[in-house]
Amino acid sequence: MEPFTELEAVAAPIDIANCDTDQIIPARFLRRPVDDPDYPDFLFHDLRFRADGTRTDFILNQPPYAAARIIVTERNWGCGSSRENAVTALVKNGIRCVIAPSFGDIHYNNCLKRGVLPVRLADAECAALRAALHAAPGARVRVDLAGQRVTGPGGPGEPGDKEYGFEIEPFDKVRLSKGLDDIDLTLEQIGEIERYERERPERLGWLSP
Questions:
Q1: DSSP bridge partners of 152
Q2: What is the bridge-based pairing of β-strands 149-153 and 97-100?
Q3: What's the confidence (pLDDT) of residue 115?
Q4: d(CA 111, CA 41)
Q5: CB atoms inside a 10 Å sphere around CB 115
Q6: Are residues 186 and 117 in the same domain?
Q7: Residue 1 lies in a domain
Q8: Are residues 76 and 155 in the same domain?
Q9: Among 32, 38, 137, 148, fewest CB within 10 Å belongs to which?
């Protein structure tokens, strides 16, 4: 997967608390292949499209935010079922970072495994950042994984940018910065795996038929 080191991009505020994975990608799309050219439209499908297929005024449909690669949302993002497709839908739309006060545990881990950086900030910090993004449509946010900092616009009446620090497990930081999925992590131990396979018949030959 693509390494994540630093990202500066348009950010979109999504004011939905307890946004579950069925809102992120409705269940009826789960069997669609990931190379389906329509996959990007599955993200927030029922919020972005009416029954007749026309677009709503959902924030990701609005031109200033349509190019967003970062989203700032409410508490308990990605709760509900464990579907990995929710992260796939984010990736298919170019979204590499989700900033929220809290995440569904499985969704948080799925993000890490697909190269999407989940950033936890305090409720008040996320609220301030969303307010600033609403006030300045199309504003950019910078996320620095190495420095564990988020830099975004100040709110109304607050000149200059504001900076927020975040925590991340060292192992997760390394895997994202190197772009390592679960298979890549296993292959990093290929020397030990091959040595074990060479030595196994001698040490465990009594298990052979």
A1: 162
A2: unpaired
A3: 95
A4: 19
A5: 19
A6: no
A7: no
A8: yes
A9: 38
Q: Are residues 185 and 95 in the same domain?
A: no
User: Tokens 């693509």 identify what position?
Assistant: 2
Structural tokens at position 171? 């192992």
Query: C-alpha distances in angstroms, 162 versus 73, 94, 122, 140, 141?
Result: 17, 24, 14, 12, 10
Crossing angle of the two packed helices 105-114 and 170-178, in degrees rounded to 10: 40
- Domain range for 207 is 180-209
> Are the C-beta atoms of 70 and 97 separated by less than 8 Å?
yes
Indicate the pLDDT class of residue 180, thresholds 50, 70 and 90. confident
| pLDDT tens column, 98-138 | 999 999 999 999 999 999 999 999 999 999 999 999 999 99
Nearest to 123 by CA among 76, 75, 165: 75
Q: What Rg do the C-alpha atoms of the chain give, in angstroms?
A: 20
If asked whether residues 162 and 208 sit together in one domain, one would say no
Write out pLDDT tens, residues 2-36.
999 999 999 999 999 999 999 999 999 999 999 99
Nearest to 84 by CA among 59, 62, 114, 105: 114
Q: Are residues 122 and 197 in the same domain?
A: no
Question: Are 203 and 174 found together in one domain?
Answer: no
pLDDT number for residue 15:
97
> Which of 132, 137, 135 minimizes the C-alpha distance to 150?
132
Q: Which tokens belong to 160? A: 């200059």
